[in-house]
């Protein structure tokens, strides 16, 4: 029977697989929401505002401020300190070395073109994942390459927890946009939301 740490680790890998799939789905919905919201926004401005006020919103549109203007205003107000890059955890470096033994370009010279290109792509993905401290992707690549990995430890569970937190934060940010809220609202609420949003960006960006 797997150790408790291994079981916890495997559960987090499954959770991340689900969250990544959900994030990709939400990104697709967000793209649709943004398109429809922009169309509704432009239509509302054209049909309901004076020529002078329309000019203000035309300038805003040119600056690509639709939908994210509120977030930009809040970001500027908070002015968070510059993020300090943390060193790559040793466990991630070890796994990346295991992958490099199987897929580094220098080790693929004698391989057929198709297999070489496939492994080169996996190596590039692994390098990017290591830079991003994305342990789950490194494990996925290790499985594809058949690389033998050591038993996971508690530090790797912490790394996966950080990945889960980052994905949840990204999904929260997607759902906090004006376009997402408007797109998923009932039809009778959409006009109210649009009016509120127009008022906000007019006062913020004029």
Q: Estimate the helix proportion, in percent.
A: over 70%
Radius of gyration: 23 Å
Report the sheet-strand fraction. Answer: under 5%
Task: State the major sheet.
Answer: none
* Element string (H = helix, E = strand): HHHHHHHHH
The number of distinct helices, counting runs of at least 4 residues, comes to: 9
User: Taking all residues together, what is the mean pLDDT?
Assistant: 84
Query: Count of DSSP E strands?
Result: 0
The low-confidence parts are 72-84
Structural class, from secondary structure content? mainly alpha
- The shape is elongated
- The rounded distance between the terminal residues' Cα atoms is 64 Å
Q: Would you summarize the structure shown here?
A:
This protein has nine helices and no strands. It has 206 residues and is mainly α.
Give the helices and strands, then pairings.
Elements (H helix, E strand, L loop, with lengths): L3 H45 L2 H12 L6 H10 L11 H14 L9 H19 L3 H11 L8 H22 L2 H6 L3 H19 L1
Helix pairs in contact: 1-7, 4-5, 4-6, 5-6
Describe the protein:
- By secondary structure, the chain is mostly helical.
- Helix 1 packs parallel to helix 7.
- The termini are far apart.
- About 6% of the residues have low confidence.
Key features?
single chain, 206 residues, mainly alpha, 77% helix, 0% strand
């Amino acid at each position: 029977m797997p150790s408790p740490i291994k079981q916890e680790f495997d559960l987090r890998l499954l959770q991340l697989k689900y969250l990544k799939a959900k994030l990709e789905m939400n990104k697709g919905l967000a793209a649709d929401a943004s398109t429809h919201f922009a169309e509704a926004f432009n239509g509302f401005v054209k049909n309901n505002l004076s020529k002078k006020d329309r000019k203000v919103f035309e300038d805003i549109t040119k600056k690509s401020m639709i939908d994210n203007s509120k977030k930009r205003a809040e970001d500027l107000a908070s002015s968070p300190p510059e993020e300090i890059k943390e060193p790559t955890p040793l466990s991630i470096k070890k796994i990346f070395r295991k992958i490099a033994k199987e897929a580094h370009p220098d080790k693929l010279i004698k391989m057929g073109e198709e297999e070489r290109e496939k492994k080169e792509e996996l190596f590039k993905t692994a390098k990017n994942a290591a830079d991003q401290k994305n342990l789950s992707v490194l494990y996925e690549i290790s499985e594809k390459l058949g690389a033998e990995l050591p038993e996971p430890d508690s530090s790797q569970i912490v790394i996966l927890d950080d990945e889960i937190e980052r994905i949840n934060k990204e999904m929260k940010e997607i759902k906090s946009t004006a376009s997402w809220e408007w797109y998923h609202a009932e039809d009778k609420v959409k006009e109210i939301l649009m009016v509120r949003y127009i008022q906000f960006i007019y006062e913020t960006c004029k």
